[in-house]
Amino acid sequence: MRPEPAFEAPWHAQVFALTVHLNEAGVFAWPDWAARFGATLKTHGLSKDLNGGDDYFAAWLETLEAYLAELGAASPDKVREAQAAWTAAYLATPHGQPVTLD
Q1: Is 19 exposed, middle or buried (0-12, 13-18, 19+ CB in 10 A)?
Q2: Digit-coded pLDDT (tens) for 80-91
């Protein structure tokens, strides 16, 4: 029997790994991250139970983007530019080929 994957979607693992990497690189301290993420989860969980999937990791990503902006490490404008560039690259990439930025 195969074990269940730790993450429901690849992007969940990617945003988790990125957050761990940023912490290990000294961009922020884990207790500071955890406090912010806890506050986001509390806000998101007011209207429904979080299931640990997309809703949980959407809150994770929201927290990470806000914290990086607060630290001056990634402005919201730069994040939007990167999202737009990746979206354009994804839409222009033939199925089955790796998505890359030029």
Answers
A1: buried
A2: 999 899 899 989
Q: Are 19 and 64 in contact (CB under 8 A)?
A: yes
pTM for the complete prediction?
0.80
List, as one string, the DSSP characters of the chain: -PPPPSSSSHHHHHHHHHHHHHHHTTSS-HHHHHHHHHHHHHHHTTTS---SSHHHHHHHHHHHHHHHHHHTSS-HHHHHHHHHHHHHHHHHSPTTSPP---
CB 19 within 8 A of CB 60: yes
Look at residue 2 and tell me whether its pLDDT is greater than 80. no
